[in-house]
Amino acid sequence: MEKLLAEFQDATKAGLQVIAGALERFSAGVAEEIRNARPRSIAADPDDENLSLDVALFDSAPIVAVPKHAKFAPLDDIGHRFLATAEGIFVEVRRPWLHVIQLLTKLPENAPRPPYGYIMPKIELAFGRLGVAIPFVQGFAEEARSALPNEHAAWIVWDADTRSLEYVPLRISNATPGAIAFERPALAPHQSLAIDLHSHGHGDAFFSSTDDADDAGEVKIAGVLGGLGDGNKPSVVFRLCVLGMTIPLKVPVQAIFKPAELA
Question: How far is CA 125 from CA 54, 92, 164, 177, 178, in A?
């Protein structure tokens, strides 16, 4: 009898575990259906045959209201969204190495104010500060000198597994004193481009119209080194590229080149 009772209890326990698992999967499925059915704030006729296209666009880059009373919850997933605030519209971007919130457009002083909260702009790097990458940039400067009179290029990527920056040489397909072309390397899933470097050889460092076109739509730090030849005055420029918006970054030329070379 005791053996039969034990077998019954084991069978009952196993059955309950199966039922619990099924209920858990059912609950998750219901929650997912509710999330998918949640209406988007799109000013369109719900019966319009093209609405699904707008829904897809909205989901790829949604706009959300910043709470006035509750605590703001930052974007967790890789991607971007727009933030509606009492001050104006901000963009929030998340990459494995970056979290940035920046004002896109400010409401006129006497404009109607949405009943939303305020948000502070921020630029947060997973590696702490740009100075961490200076040794890599110094090494790149030496490579760029060796490539004179032609331009040179390299990447610095963020490794999410090791949580560190890594220098990635590029395969240059064509280089001249005024232009450079290279093959974009295939990065592993745990790697992402953080800093895109190129040089201007003997010329000054600046962002050209070609650079502007290349950087449009990307999220990265771009850096240019110039004045690399003997007797030239070295120069550097850096900026954060955020989906077409650029934010200048201050990097002292003395941090990359020895002071004696500036004389």
Answer: 32, 14, 11, 33, 32
Token digits of residue 47: 């019966």
Q: How far apart are CA 152 and CA 172, in angstroms?
A: 8
Judge if 142 and 77 occupy the same domain: no
Our CA angle for 170, 209, 136, nearest 5°, is 35
CB contact at 8 A, 175 and 150: yes
Give 242: exposed, middle or buried? Use CB within 10 Å, 0-12, 13-18, 19+.
buried
Mean pLDDT value across residues 10-32 = 59
Residue 243 to residue 193: CA distance in whole angstroms: 14
What is the model's pLDDT at position 231? Answer: 83
C-alpha 97/C-alpha 195 separation (Å) is 10
| Token pair of 198 as six digits | 């190129």
Is residue 258 one of the residues assigned to a domain? yes
Report the CATH number that the domain containing residue 232 is assigned in CATH.
Answer: 3.40.140.10
pTM of the model: 0.81
130 sits in the region (left: phi over 0; alpha: psi -120 to 50; else beta) called: alpha
134 and 187: one domain? yes
pLDDT of residue 3 exceeding 90? no
Alpha carbon distances (Å) from 41 to 4, 58, 230, 239: 60, 9, 60, 34
Shared-domain flag, residues 62 and 151: no
28 assigned to some structural domain: no
Q: Which domain holds residue 159?
A: 130-262
**Cβ atoms 95, 78 nearer than 8 A:** yes
Answer yes or no: is 21 within a domain.
no
